[in-house]
Write a structure and sequence with these properties.
This protein has one domain: ABC transporter involved in vitamin B12 uptake, BtuC (Orthogonal Bundle), CATH 1.10.3470. Helices cover 70% and strands 1% of the residues. The protein has a two-stranded antiparallel sheet.
Length: 309
């Protein structure tokens, strides 16, 4: 047990939780604005590819992060347009966007490297020990010997909480999710607020995808998001649309994922496929216990037309 639950295990928990947490924070913004972001799987996938490609062509993983945010935002804006302007079913639109992203990322990968060719390794985000803090016993190695994207996530959790609950923008965002007509009646712009939430969601989801390709693996593979975008939406529900609760839910998934990897590495006599299912099964069990006990934004998933009274 001491071999499994050592420092390396808890480092892996953080490394595996961060992509889901970033995507979940993105989903939280759209949910608070009344949009069901079922396209996060596609946003993460395109963020992973664009981040990888940006790092590949520039030689800098930091440039890759900018590419990832741009790619994620482009996909998110498709969801925003069809949901806000088109008024289509948001779950159906998100599912279609996910399929589009899978095909598009595969096409771009084969176009850049050739069909059947193995993608090149890229310069990845390296761990940066924080002076002083990284010297703390146990906690230093676990929390303060990580890459810059992990440190950014540490800051984003309290920052997003502050934005949602303590700023005028957050008040407008929550108002749009609960009663868009009320916001409009006091001079607010419902479409503008929802589009801003979509852009934020795309940027954060793109960074979540970049975690996979330029931080965790240093390579891009087809379908490498592996359902994490769907998990991100579940995590928002489990976390009750609050950044603090979402963080706990994301780390629960990260812990389950790190555990199944450790069990495989130490040769536990159990079918590998069942171990790989562990994080997803745990998430479903937690979700089954939470759904019905939480109430989401009242206008979530409902198209808004100011001409209709």
């Amino acid at each position: 047990m001491s071999l499994i639950f050592g420092v390396g295990f808890f480092q892996s928990v953080i490394r595996l939780a961060v992509p889901v947490l970033l995507a979940s924070l993105g989903c939280m913004f759209t949910a608070r604005s009344g949009i069901i972001n079922f396209a996060m799987e596609g946003i993460m996938l395109m963020g992973a590819f664009c981040g990888y490609y940006g790092s590949y062509v520039s030689g800098s993983p930091l440039v890759g992060l900018l590419f990832a945010m741009a790619g994620g935002t482009a996909i998110a804006l498709i969801l925003g347009f069809v949901s806000i302007k088109g008024g289509v079913d948001q779950v159906v639109a998100g599912t279609g966007i996910n399929i589009l992203s899978m095909g598009l990322s595969s096409y771009l990968l084969s176009s850049v490297f050739g069909r059947g060719q193995k993608p090149s390794q890229i310069n990845s985000l390296l761990n940066i020990p924080l002076p002083g803090l990284s010297q703390l016993p146990f906690l230093g190695d676990v929390f303060f010997n990580q890459n810059v994207l992990v440190y950014l996530t540490y800051l984003l959790v309290p920052f997003t909480w502050y934005v949602i609950f303590k700023t005028p923008y957050g008040m407008q965002l929550r108002a749009v999710g609960e009663s868009p007509r009320t916001l409009e009646s006091v001079g607010g712009n419902v479409q503008r607020v929802r589009y801003s939430a979509v852009v934020i969601s795309g940027m954060l989801g793109g960074l979540g995808g970049a975690c996979l390709s330029i931080a965790n693996l240093s390579v891009f593979m087809e379908k490498m998001s592996a359902g994490r975008g769907y998990l991100a939406w579940s995590t928002v529900t489990v976390g009750k649309w609050n950044p603090i609760g979402i963080t706990g839910a994301a780390f629960l998934f990260g812990g389950a994922d790190a555990l199944q990897m450790r069990l495989q590495a130490y040769g536990i006599k159990f079918p590998r496929e069942f171990l790989m299912m562990l994080p997803y099964i745990l998430t479903m069990l937690v979700l089954a216990g939470v759904v019905g006990k939480t109430v989401g934004p009242a206008a979530m998933g409902k198209p808004y037309d100011k001409e209709v009274r």
